[in-house]
Specification:
Blueprint: E1 4-6, H1 15-21, H2 31-48, E2 54-58, H3 61-72, E3 78-83, H4 86-97, E4 101-106, H5 115-124, E5 128-134, E6 136-137, E7 142-143, H6 146-153, E8 159-163, H7 175-178, E9 182-186, E10 197-202, H8 204-210, H9 222-228, H10 238-254, H11 256-276, E11 280-281, E12 293-297, H12 304-315, E13 317-321, E14 330-334, H13 341-357, H14 366-381
Helix pairs in contact: 1-10, 2-10, 3-4, 11-14, 12-13, 13-14
Length: 382
């Protein structure tokens, strides 16, 4: 049975990227590797919307989150966390593990933060050193307004640290223009690769703080990455570097603006198809819905754990369900990376067949019709 992924990561890996990673290995200090890394390093900043260097690390996205916290802050430093989803909570946990003084805006999952509340906390805590926020929160399918946060803290000493692991490439990112200081990403989302690489882009303002921050980590030391640049400071995942080189080539050939438009269209089509089947979109504000993943609450009588298990067993298709208290009542469809229009027809064909199998009453073909109408409207307006 063919395996398919409609998840926010790991995502489907195109054959060309897989084959690139299967090439014979080379030494990581060779001239060949130096040439490859120079090309990669020259290309990566454009995806971040920055003129600053981007460092490639051999780690998961969580490793990148940890690296940002431990490099930018000393024990006892005061930071503010926007906690409105699973990964906002992870930022909070990492900051606590780093022995930081953690202030947290704890919001119901999927709900937006209020800038006035951030301002109030800042003006009451002028010793605040940083704010940690997730761009695209895959647990809810919501995006946070990182531009608004960056703009407010631009002229302060506070570092704006952004987890863009699932937000980069599928959404616009203008790190320099928006006043962001540390932006992290990962390979198994928009880069269409297997898990294993993470990326960090660091502003001059952040380097000013990092330069006098205690060395709390060795492997993830940003100072070491800067000293060794353009080469990695430790043995890299050579095969993953080969895949990254091919990934960048594919992304550049499509064009960043086209990639953003494609992801936005897929998100809109997914939203329309889900509502046609009686699902309720979890994020009510259309401007806050992620281009990476769409979350929706199931209609009465539908257990999403049963539905998604049936889809996986019958069709080899993996779709994620809700996390925490939303387990069994939420569906989360990922449409990031190499995902296209035809993939969505497969996804909703499987969903409809399994809904029917589980005796849920609905208008058969409704989701297909919704997809067609969405794509036709887009072509008409183009």
């Amino acid at each position: 049975m063919k395996k398919r992924l409609a998840t926010p990561g790991p995502t489907f890996v195109p054959t060309d990227i897989l084959l690139a990673g299967a090439k014979e290995s080379i030494h990581h200090r060779s001239n060949d590797m130096k040439t490859i890394m120079e090309g990669i390093n020259q290309s990566l900043p454009q995806f971040f919307g920055s003129k600053n260097e981007v460092y490639t690390m051999l780690s998961s996205g969580t490793g990148a989150m940890e690296s940002a916290v431990f490099n930018c802050f000393n024990k006892g430093d005061k930071v503010l966390v926007i906690n409105n989803g699973y990964f906002g909570k992870r930022f909070k946990d990492i900051a606590s593990r780093a022995s930081l003084e953690v202030l947290s805006i704890d919001i119901e999952w999927g709900e937006p933060f209020e800038l006035d509340q951030i301002k109030e906390i800042y003006f009451s805590n002028k010793d605040l050193q940083g704010i940690l926020v997730v761009y695209s929160e895959t647990s809810t399918g919501a995006v946070n307004d990182i531009k608004e946060i960056g703009d407010f803290f631009r002229q302060t000493n506070v570092l704006t640290v952004v987890d863009a692991i699932s937000g980069l490439i599928s959404h616009e990112m203008q790190m320099d223009e928006w006043g962001l200081d540390v932006v992290i990403a990962s390979s198994h989302k928009g880069f269409m690769m297997p898990p294993g690489l993470s990326f960090v882009c660091i502003s001059n303002k952040a380097w000013g703080k990092i330069s006098y921050t205690e060395e709390n980590t060795y492997y993830f030391s940003y100072k070491r990455f800067k000293d060794f640049y353009p080469a990695p400071p430790s043995s890299p995942g050579v095969s993953l570097i080969f895949s990254l080189e091919k990934s960048i080539e594919i992304l550049k050939s499509e064009g960043i603006a086209n990639i953003h438009s494609r992801h936005q269209l897929l998100a809109t089509a997914t939203q329309n198809a889900l509502t046609s089947l009686g699902f309720k979109l979890f994020i009510s504000d259309s401007f806050r819905r992620s281009n990476t993943i769409t979350s929706a609450l199931a209609p009465r009588g539908v257990d999403t754990s049963v539905l998604l298990n049936s889809i996986n067993e019958d069709f080899g298709l993996t779709i994620t369900g809700g996390q925490g208290k939303y387990k069994g009542i939420m569906i989360r469809i990922g449409h990031i990376g190499a995902f296209d229009e035809l993939d969505l027809f497969s996804v909703f064909g499987a969903i409809e067949m399994c809904l029917s199998k589980n005796n849920y009453e609905f208008q058969e073909g409704a989701s297909t019709k919704a997809l067609i109408n969405t794509f036709k409207k887009e072509k008409t307006n183009a």
